[in-house]
């Protein structure tokens, strides 16, 4: 069942082009318009939504954070992301005009389920983004957008994460389309860009995987690894850190790169490995230049900089000890590519340390207790 891979996790990392492709499948009509038949919530209700709250835990919550950037940009609907176990206990302001998006691979996470129930009690409609057909969260939700990643066996989530992000993009673009947003051209461009992602993910696997594996085996003795990202690269950084904690038992932290000077830069010392996820140099604003200057700052303080950047981005070379290039993509879609080297890194490092990659200590695949 592992298709010849040493672990389910490694197999599932390789399943990702298909996971993303299958999640997109059948959701575009012949005119390139999105058809999400599963969203059985009245369109007038969806048009009246004035706030979106994404609730989830762990990796699914990082998918939610990526979703926030995309949904707010495309739909101009204020969007919050909250850990499901925190959401319920802060007396959240949720009502009939709130759309709650519950993201869960298993559909059985108790914290998320309880948050769904709480939101529904306040009158909110709930859309579940879920990978497990017929599980509890989609059964109780008002609508479901299934991710078609196939069963995920490894405790550390990989392909479900990419599929969740893909489904969230579809939801965001669907809402933008439904609400007649003025971004019509952007919607069709994004849909075409999404269709191109499976092949680009495959390229990361083909071209970058061997380099990342080599780096990982040489870093078996790392005591702590930091991850920096900005905009959608921030949740990617958090996800990279979580993977490493979960399966390689290495202390790891993800930071927003802009936060570095507000404290974490004090951690940078000679030889400290730091992954940096660099936004596209073609993106808006000056984010790229800012992140490059972050790399420069930490390198000057002795960090070992491991940079994930877009192909053709030569500006990062000067300050990077290692660079992994991923194919070009619109900034909002970059997490589908930039996450992959981080997953490979954690998987390879954990394997090199002799750990059970699929069944890390103290963890269960689905957390059905609060
Ligand atoms: O099944 P869910 O998506 O609701 O699970 C949520 C988290 O428990 C899960 O993502 C967890 O963080 C993974 N082990 C991450 O690799």
UniProtKB/TrEMBL annotation:
Residue numbers annotated as active site: 365
Transmembrane parts of this sequence: none
Enzyme superclass (EC): transferase
Biological processes, Gene Ontology terms: carbohydrate metabolic process; fructose 6-phosphate metabolic process; protein N-linked glycosylation; UDP-N-acetylglucosamine metabolic process
Listed GO MF terms: carbohydrate derivative binding; glutamine-fructose-6-phosphate transaminase (isomerizing) activity
Subcellular location: Cytoplasm
Reaction(s) catalysed (UniProt annotation): D-fructose 6-phosphate + L-glutamine = D-glucosamine 6-phosphate + L-glutamate
Main location: cytoplasm
Domain (SIS) ranges: 41-181, 215-360
Keywords tagged on the record: Aminotransferase, Cytoplasm, Glutamine amidotransferase, Repeat, Transferase
Entry's EC annotation: 2.6.1.16
An annotated GO cellular component: cytosol
Subunit structure: Homodimer.
Its biological purpose: Catalyzes the first step in hexosamine metabolism, converting fructose-6P into glucosamine-6P using glutamine as a nitrogen source.
Protein name per Swiss-Prot or TrEMBL: Glutamine--fructose-6-phosphate aminotransferase [isomerizing]
Species this chain originates from: Kocuria marina subsp. indica
């Amino acid at each position: 069942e592992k298709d010849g891979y040493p672990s389910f996790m490694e197999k599932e990392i390789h399943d990702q082009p298909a996971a993303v492709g299958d999640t997109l499948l059948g959701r575009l009509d012949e005119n390139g318009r999105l058809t999400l038949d599963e969203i059985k919530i009245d369109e007038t209700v969806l048009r009246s939504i004035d706030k979106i709250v994404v609730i989830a835990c762990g990796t699914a919550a990082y998918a939610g954070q990526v979703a926030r950037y995309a949904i707010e940009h495309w739909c101009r609907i204020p969007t919050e992301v909250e850990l499901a176990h925190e959401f319920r206990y802060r007396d959240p302001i949720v009502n009939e005009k709130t759309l709650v998006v519950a993201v869960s691979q298993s559909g059985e996470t108790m914290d998320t389920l309880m948050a769904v129930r709480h939101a529904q009690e306040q009158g909110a409609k709930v859309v579940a983004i879920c990978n497990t057909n017929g599980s509890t969260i989609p059964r109780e939700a008002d609508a479901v957008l299934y991710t078609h990643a196939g069963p995920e066996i490894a405790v550390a989530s990989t392909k479900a994460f990419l599929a969740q992000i893909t489904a969230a993009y579809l939801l965001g673009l669907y809402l933008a389309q439904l609400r007649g947003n003025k971004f019509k051209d952007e919607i069709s461009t994004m849909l075409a860009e999404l269709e191109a992602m499976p092949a680009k993910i495959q390229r990361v696997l083909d071209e970058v995987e061997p380099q990342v594996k080599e780096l990982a085996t040489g870093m078996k003795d790392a005591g702590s690894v930091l991850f920096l990202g900005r905009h959608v690269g921030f949740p990617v950084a958090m996800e990279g850190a979580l993977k490493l904690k979960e399966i390689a038992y290495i202390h790891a932290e993800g930071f927003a790169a802009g936060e570095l000077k507000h404290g974490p830069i004090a951690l940078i010392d000679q030889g400290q490995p730091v992954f940096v996820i660099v936004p596209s140099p073609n993106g808006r604003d000056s984010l790229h230049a800012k992140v490059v200057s972050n790399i420069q700052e930490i390198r000057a303080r002795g960090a070992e900089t491991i940079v994930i950047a877009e192909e053709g981005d030569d500006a990062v070379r000067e300050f990077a000890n290692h660079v992994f290039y991923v194919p070009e993509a619109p900034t909002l879609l970059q997490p589908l590519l930039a996450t992959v080297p981080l997953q490979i890194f954690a998987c390879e490092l954990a394997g090199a340390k002799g750990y059970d990659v699929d069944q890390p200590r103290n963890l269960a695949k689905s957390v059905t207790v609060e």
